[in-house]
Each structure stands twice: as C-alpha cells, then as structure tokens.
C-alpha cells in the first residue's frame, strides 16, 4: 500500500512542477534558515558549558545601591581570592585573573628570543596558579601545578606555539615582551586553544605580581570552585563578613571618611554561575568582555519559528488552493471503494515526502551558507554531522513537520463527497478561502514586523555612528605598541609634527573607546568631611596635546599647558558630568581628593562618550601623566595612504625591529558596537528569508487565483474591460489582506522594538515615519509579487481560454 502511495505522490510532483517547486523551495529555505539560527542559538547558549564541573564554577560579583542606582562590579582586590579559599570551607579553590583594564588592552610587542623582529600580539591575560584547576586548563606541554610559579613564566596556546616554534615544541623557549631583553620570559606550558564559546579569550597567560596585596585596589576577576554540596545562597550571606574583617578596616586605615564607609556597608557579594556570564551579565558590571544578548537569542528563536511556520502555511495554502485539481481524483477513488483513512494516508505520505525532500535541500543549503553566516556572525560554527543526535533529530523533525503541515490538507481533501465532485458542483471557496486569507494575513503581518525591526535597527545604528560624540573620531590614526619607543617618544612626536599631512599628535593609552586603558577611583571634595560620600570616576593620564588632538571642547577654565608647572603635579580637568555629580556650580579652583593626592580643578571638558551608547556618560577626570603605549595622530583629510606611508617611514627609522601596527579611531568606535551591528546583520538576513518565503506563497496563490478565474477574465476582456480594471480586480483582494496585515503588525512591531531600544541609553525616537515606510515597503513587495500574474492575465488572449466553451 505504501508503495502505491509513494508512486502517486511522485506522479503528483511531476504533474504539478511549478506549485511543487514553490512548496519544496519555500520549505527548504525555511529549514535552512531555521537550522542556521538553531546552530547560532546552540553556540550562544553553549558558552562556558564545556567544563565538567560547570555548575560549581562561579565568578564573584559585588553590587550596592548608591543614590538610588544599582552599581555592580566584577573587579576585586588582589587578596580576595586567597581570603575566600581560606575563610570558607565551601570553596574548594579560588583564583584570579587580570585583564586589560590597567594594561594595554591585552596587547604586547612580542618575539621569540632567537628573532630580532617584534610582532604585535594580543590575548595576554594574567592569572594565578589556581586558575588551571578552576577553569580546567590542561597543559599539552609542561606541569600545570607549577606553570605560573616563576615571576617571568609564561603559558601559551597551542596555535601560538605552532606559529612561532618548529613543530610547536615551545616548552623552555624564551620570549621577549615589549622589546625588553633584560626581562625575558620562559615558556613553562602549552595549553590547548580556548574554545570559541568561552567568555575568556586569551593565548598568553602570565603570572600575577602578588607584591601589592592591598584591599583598596580593585583590578582582578575572582573565580571560585565550590564544593558540590555547597549552598550558594548561604555562602553569599557568609561572604558579607569580608567587608567587616578586611575591606572596611583597610579603607579606614587609608583615611576614608565616615560617609564613604557607610556606602561600603551597602555592598553585597554575589556568585554568578560561569554559564551565565556571556548572556546574563548586567551592563552595569562593566567587565570589559564581549557579551551576547539573551533578548536577541530568543528573538532569533522566534524568527526561526516564524520562518518555519511561514513555509508550513505555504504548504497548507497551496494544498487547499489546488483542491479543485485533486477533487475528481478523490471522487473516483471513493467511488471505487477507497476509505477516508486511505485518502488521508495518501495525502500525508505526499506531505512527508515533500518534507523529506525539503529537509535534504534545506540542510545542504544551510551547509553551503554556513561560511557566509560565520563571517557575518563572527563565529566558527561547524555543521555537527558527527554529533550523535543530529541526523536522527533531522529525520524526526522532517516526519513531524511533514505530518503537522499535511494534516489539514489531508482531512480537507479526503472529506470531498463523490457525488458533488463528479457532478462538477464542488464549491472550493468558503471556509478554505477564508483560511487561506487568514494565513496570508499572518504571513504578511509577520513580514511587516520584521521590516519594522530592520528599519529601526538600521536607524539606530546610523544614529550611533553619526551622533556627536563630544570628540572628533575622524582622520585619527592610532599607533599601537608605542611604548617600545621609550625615551624616543617625544622626538618621535616632533618628527611626526614636521609632516605636512599631520595636524596634531598625542601619546596616551587612554582612548575614548572601549578596549583601551581604564582606571577607576573614588573622588571626594576636600574639606567636605562626612557630608560627601564621594563618587566613582574614571581617571585618565594624558599628555598636554590630548584634548586638542581628540577635538574635545573645554567649556570652562583652561586646557593643560607646559607653561604651568603645577599641571604635571596636581592640576586636574573634569567633565561636566563629574562636576554635576560633585554638586559643583563653580568648580574652577575647587580641590578634590582620590586618596592619592589633592587635585585642583583647572578646567571643565564637555561631556564626551567613552563607552557604548547603551551606557550613560559617567564622571571622568583627566590629569597629566605618562602612559605611552598608544599614540594618536590627527591627519589631514585627503590621501590617507600617503599619510600612512609617511608615518610608517618615520616609525621604521625609530623602531626598525617592529612593524607599525595601526588602526583608526572611527574603526575602534565602530568596534565598540560590533555586537549590535552583527546582530543587526543577522536579523536583516533572516528577515529577508522570512519575507522571501512569504512572497513565494503569495506568488503561488496569485498564480492559482489567475488560473481559477481565467475564463471570467477572458469574458471580461471580450466585453471590453480595460487593462486597469482587470489588474485592479486581481490585485485588490490581496491588497486588502496586506493592509489588514499592516494594521495588525504596527503595534506589535512598535512594542518589540521599543523593548529593544530600552537597552540603549541614547536612542532614536519611534516616529510614525518608520511604520509608514514599513507599510509602504510591504505594499510594494506584495504588488511586485502578484503583479506578474495579474499583468499576464490582463494581457491574455481570450480565445485561448474560451475555445472549449
């Protein structure tokens, strides 16, 4: 029996090639899109799940409510890890790592001892010995129990070992960092490359200098491995004792006033599961890591479901629309004794066959598109052919989707009465037509929502990239690894200023973009005593030319100047936000203190953005200092290649053993928002998939409608109906459905994108123009889709359709 069903299904495919192609093609595209999204979601949700004891590994977080705002941090004093392990038996191991907040963005000049030419590598991380056990880092070469004991030991990844040493035999080799041959590092271990879906991404692990065991400097991520019987809530409560025993006494000894100590008493210590770091970290933590967006993950899951649903709707629509073509077949088969169950089985067999073919084509399409998708998403996802459940899951999914999408058409077609069919009195309108209309409305409402999302994401990204930032990011070349210049820095700057292409030059590791150096301290007003609890502020060390080079604006007071000897000692410039938070209406000349020295405010710089647009501008203080790892060069607009060539020539004269490494400030700014750009590109790609699948169904339905009304159209043409009348007749019914779709989609799209924009402190307004544009685009797409069939029908020769009458 099944063989007979299969034969009939194959004949049906051959007989109705056009509509079968639409069914299978739409299904295949939907499956390809769903599979790519599923692989993406699997990768995002799989972050930090590769640890065998992942449910016992936590990152320590502290939080406190200050002035009605919840502040969070993941940076702790150096003794925190050791104290946690010693004071709480529930903690098996505690370790710490130190990233780029006070280093040069994790980037260093680097070369094997046998080489003379430096290269610029990134991915440097400092850690202690316990990190090997907590993060389960095995060593391919070396002993993990003593890999970071020596002060100048170094563990490198397998890929870097292979890159720089023959056959990857790196153990015992010597490396030179920052061109400092007097402090060589010895490779004491080679570790496997960290998985791509890990929140930590590094290739070089160095030991932490434990000499500054202060409870008042907070720079380290702290991780703990808990005993499997530990109660996390109870442990968190017990951890509050650290404040009373260590933190508060240290701050009192340092001279902090009573108001500051009261703020410290509000701090709570929390344990964040390592699997939550990538997707569930609050932006307020400011940990400097690249995070995913859980809201986007579930949005993509919804899009995947909608795309698959759209493809199923196409199948149902076309199956019921073609009912008249199968009616006589059903009537004859019932007349000769076929039961309804036989017919249902027949149509379900066809549906499952369509689904299996579509799955094969869809999986192959996804496999071919995967490299492009990886490039857009910046992933290294592979098709999991060898994963145990993958192929069986695909087969089961094909069967389930084939059965579900074929149920309604199967029961609908098998319910035809033989007498009505064979008399030619079958009415295929009514309920099935209303169902088709409802499904078209659903398809295009979904499409309009996606169009709204695409437009708003595009407008928000344009807003971010074109917003006045408070500094000029254009035409600024950033030289990295400039600390290798050492005492030549001033001379190098003067040589650059001799170039006609160069306007200004500044040396500072602190840039108004993420991924550069950061340093946060607490400032209080001098003489305010207990009335002022202090504020947290970034403190950047810059040179005398920094503000001018970056195009920042001094709105009150003056810039730093070499003419004032005090500027290099205790003068400070603060931004407007810091002046506001300190309650200073006339800040010039006022003194503030960060427990290192008293500073005199000599200028106010206009607020500028130095974080992502998802965050508000925060207090910032600038002082003259020496951090020379990065040089910013403002060049004239025009021939950038000529400017770079001139800069490179001067660099090579000063640093012949290290190639120039540069980037542009506007590129670094765009890099800050690459997560949103990347998600926007992915969203747009799958929105296109969904709209295209919906259009396939609309195109096929319009073709069927024209075929059904072919004789009516011919009679109208014979009676003198003009082209416009025929075109309007064939398109108006569809346009009414599209207009209804737009009305349904607009409030849904507004709500969804309003929620998305809430992630941004600075965002566009949701004006009516966006929704009008989305509706217009949907109408144009619908008209374009159905116009071919409508125009063809309007220009048809009536005799061809009426010759049999």
What is the strand and helix layout of this fold?
Elements: H1 2-15, H2 17-45, E1 57-66, E2 69-73, H3 80-87, E3 91-98, E4 107-112, E5 119-122, E6 124-127, H4 131-134, E7 141-142, E8 153-157, H5 158-164, E9 174-177, E10 185-191, E11 204-207, E12 221-226, H6 232-238, H7 241-254, H8 258-264, E13 268-273, H9 277-280, H10 294-321, H11 323-335, H12 340-377, H13 390-414, H14 418-423, H15 430-466, E14 476-480, H16 489-497, E15 502-507, E16 520-525, E17 535-542, H17 546-550, E18 554-557, E19 571-575, H18 576-581, E20 591-593, E21 598-605, E22 620-624, E23 630-635, H19 640-654, E24 661-664, H20 665-672, H21 674-708, H22 710-718, H23 723-757, H24 768-794, H25 798-802
Characteristics of this structure?
six-stranded mixed beta barrel, 16% strand, single chain, 805 residues, alpha+beta, globular
Give the structure's gist in a few sentences.
By secondary structure, the protein is an alpha+beta fold. It contains 25 helices and 24 strands. Helix content is 49%, strand content 16%.
Strand content: 15-25%
Derived structural class? alpha+beta
Helical content, roughly? 40-55%
Count of discrete alpha- or pi-helical segments spanning 4 or more residues? 25
Q: Which runs of at least 5 residues are low in confidence (pLDDT < 50)? A: 101-105
Distance between the termini: 40 Å
User: Main β-sheet, in a few words?
Assistant: 13 strands, mixed
- Count of β-strands: 24
How would the global form be characterised?
globular
Q: Compute the CA-based radius of gyration.
A: 34 Å
- The residue-averaged pLDDT reads 82
